[in-house]
Amino acid sequence: MSNTPTDPPILSHLDESGQVRMVDVSSKAPSQRTAIAEGLVRMSATAYKLLSAQQNAKGEVLNTARVAGVLAAKRCAELIPLCHGLPLSFVGIEFFPDDANHSIAVKTTCRTDYKTGVEMEAMMACSVAALTIYDMCKAADKGIVIEHIRLRYKSGGKSGEWHND
Amino acid sequence: MSNTPTDPPILSHLDESGQVRMVDVSSKAPSQRTAIAEGLVRMSATAYKLLSAQQNAKGEVLNTARVAGVLAAKRCAELIPLCHGLPLSFVGIEFFPDDANHSIAVKTTCRTDYKTGVEMEAMMACSVAALTIYDMCKAADKGIVIEHIRLRYKSGGKSGEWHND
Amino acid sequence: MSNTPTDPPILSHLDESGQVRMVDVSSKAPSQRTAIAEGLVRMSATAYKLLSAQQNAKGEVLNTARVAGVLAAKRCAELIPLCHGLPLSFVGIEFFPDDANHSIAVKTTCRTDYKTGVEMEAMMACSVAALTIYDMCKAADKGIVIEHIRLRYKSGGKSGEWHND
Amino acid sequence: MSNTPTDPPILSHLDESGQVRMVDVSSKAPSQRTAIAEGLVRMSATAYKLLSAQQNAKGEVLNTARVAGVLAAKRCAELIPLCHGLPLSFVGIEFFPDDANHSIAVKTTCRTDYKTGVEMEAMMACSVAALTIYDMCKAADKGIVIEHIRLRYKSGGKSGEWHND
Amino acid sequence: MSNTPTDPPILSHLDESGQVRMVDVSSKAPSQRTAIAEGLVRMSATAYKLLSAQQNAKGEVLNTARVAGVLAAKRCAELIPLCHGLPLSFVGIEFFPDDANHSIAVKTTCRTDYKTGVEMEAMMACSVAALTIYDMCKAADKGIVIEHIRLRYKSGGKSGEWHND
Amino acid sequence: MSNTPTDPPILSHLDESGQVRMVDVSSKAPSQRTAIAEGLVRMSATAYKLLSAQQNAKGEVLNTARVAGVLAAKRCAELIPLCHGLPLSFVGIEFFPDDANHSIAVKTTCRTDYKTGVEMEAMMACSVAALTIYDMCKAADKGIVIEHIRLRYKSGGKSGEWHND
């Protein structure tokens, strides 16, 4: 992530002898950084219908998943070994239910003004929000699939804006 | 998960008034339980090649992801709000690199002899192992996608064996 | 808690030399145990009204507080130094809004079938649920007060049932 | 908390559609911030006397509660879903035993020089210190009550000084 | 740890292909298990004297270290990757100050009645208690050394009693 | 640590009344800070040989210990009661196996640009990396000893450079 566009890509978490270490960000300047991640929870028609049929269900399930996602973003560095801990200035989680395909898209946005990016925080929030939906619907469909967790956007830092469309 | 095959499916984490609560497992008997989850990390050819080209890289990356996955399985109940804490008797994580498609399949197996299943632990271990691979390779490819996180198998408890092929 | 009714009360977390230690529960038998705790969040009329006036507000605030309370119950032993870690078989959190007094009563129920009681888990869940309500309403009223956190009921173990009316 | 004195109060943790999210503090300037919270642990005369009668008891109980409170302040953002993680520059916890009313007042002070306030950290430290006293004295009195957890003072940030007398 | 006395020793955390995994304890029977660990904190005469000279110092420092050690024992499986989470039935920490050598010996005892041993919990409690003493005395002596952290005793399980004298 | 060279040494974590509190760093300026800690894991010849004899063993064991050490550095403030949480800009862990003495030296380097030092983070990383080696080799030698955990170097802050040779 610290390589300029013309550097050959490298696995930045390995040192010269090929062993893992945290990337040293001592000399990096802080900047406003944003990352957006997305994923998809695809379930059976039956499970999807319960979310609407059972009183209050969709609201409670999605709020619970949203809270879980926000909390997971804040604890990302405890779970991803070489991730830097950083102060998040924003975490937002949106859900886009798709009735036709009985799926729920998850979109997470994280922001910091620190020296490293918040890609992992956004990816972690997205994964844990999706897993929480799985957990709360698995009694109706154990075969729910979590699809296409990926980074959609990042800005800030030396490498600037990046889109994944 | 406590419904018998003939019960209509329900969202078991909501009570009669539609509000979230942990499922009460007080009266359930412990049994030997296993869950297996799978997922796929799909990256660019360039990033995939670095795993082989850089000295030692694949071993270090996969070991780190394995350790992260095992640790995440143990902390699953801290992250998934309505998940019961339980003593894991086994966590194993396997990786299957696919050179042709420059992807790595992740397969996680969890076991307990407690009153509730270990599906969420296996799904969490799989997600966090995949996210760790993403983190360690994202300097070479920010667009890595995590695909098809899903449960493959569970056994134990009242509902017995379940396969997802 | 291990004293019989005729023992003089003691501070069980201090050893003979007056120093803290976990109570040794090696020789205690597991039993079904329940604990119920209660507390009260009392806020200004203005803050209370916002919970009803802003679209969706009460549901989101209380669901968030419920999730926070359940998660805190599961992590009680990380926070209360001499508390035993134990597997919770149930955590439920109920809210009773009182329009006349613009307050919300919090009632938490925890269950285990382990060797020690779940009083602290119920008290912790109640406190953190109340603090979460405070956090989400403090923009409207910084002076919200959390009142009367206390144990209402416990059952199980050698000392059996106990009511606090 | 970001409203100026003339804004109508709002529940700042809900977005326009009424769903929870972290408040975005990206554009806020850091400032020296202090928060002071207070609460009261009220116990039976019998339990209170044990604190003085048993050798060393009061010191050990209060030191343990102090340590628990400091640790809880540091982990506040893990427990309160929409609370920002922040670096604490100070946490202090004082106890004021009141022999006449067999109660112990708890006063906690937190400081940061970050973009958001430390009210929740002070309230959390106060609650967990009080709960730890409860835990260590509950063998002598299960009916101990935690009273009047509330914010007493805050300074720093746009809203400046605030007293609650 | 599951090898009988005549098995050749192995590194039990590596599978047949030489990769890490948790040891599978599914088929092991629970038993009463104890582990005792010891270590030594050796400091300068100056630092050691402050513990006695400053009012209250030794009690506060050692109580704080004791609380830190107990809490660390409970979180051992979060820190040691392949360690099983287990319910601790007892954690006790003793300190033996040695005025002549200005050192403090740390002795920790852990107990469980689970399927795996509590050696790591005892070793972790000992290390973190020692590190806490270091932290609290380092203003007076940054060169404090933590010596001889080791297991002294274990009992329970298939391998039975083991002494390290 | 805030005393100038001519101040008499004090136990900075105790206030005037001899009770623990976090040191107030509100008025300290951030600076680039580094700390290096070292320790030694000494094992039997048999256990040490297994690290080389079993396929892949040394790499897997040391990578696992390295990951555990990095993660522990990031969570230091959760474990050491009066330690300030801070953003680590670097954590690196090196191992130096010594075939002649069948021991492994552990050297950890931590960096921050915050207001307090990273000594405790380096010491914690060193201890947990050593404990992880113990855990993974204890099936072959329960008597492994962790020796000489100590600070080797620190720089940054008012007290500047410090060497421990």
From TrEMBL, chains A, B, C, D, E, F:
Domain Molybdopterin cofactor biosynthesis C (MoaC): 22-157
Any one biological process term the GO annotation gives: Mo-molybdopterin cofactor biosynthetic process
Keyword Lyase attributed: yes
Root EC class: lyase
Catalytic activity: (8S)-3',8-cyclo-7,8-dihydroguanosine 5'-triphosphate = cyclic pyranopterin phosphate + diphosphate
Pathway in which this enzyme or protein is active: Cofactor biosynthesis; molybdopterin biosynthesis
GO molecular function, one term: cyclic pyranopterin monophosphate synthase activity
SUPFAM superfamilies: Molybdenum cofactor biosynthesis protein C, MoaC (SSF55040)
Database matches in HAMAP family: MoaC_B
Quaternary structure (record): Homohexamer; trimer of dimers.
Entry protein name: Cyclic pyranopterin monophosphate synthase
